[in-house]
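Exam revision sheet. Question 4 asks you to relate a sequence to its structure. Input first:
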Amino acid sequence: MFVSAEIITIVISAVGLLLALGGTMFAGFAWCIRRSDSLRTDLVGVETSLGARIDGVEQRLTARIDGVAADVTELKVAVARLEGPQRHLIVAGR
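Answer key, structure tokens:
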């Protein structure tokens, strides 16, 4: 069986192209994995600092809401006294 030089060249070129593409894809995937791992370590510090800020805001907001709740309770009591039933000095007997 006789194989021409052109066929051998085409086969070698195809194998080389497949190896080059496979190597490039592997290197690109490895770069993506390495990049996502470095982002994850960066996000740990950001998460810690944001968690502390959120906790501080939550405590201040809770204090403000509790202060308003006390004022609203006093207002409700005052309105209830104004709108409540009339007090009778003389109770009707049966």
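Marking note for examiners. The chain has a mean pLDDT of 84.
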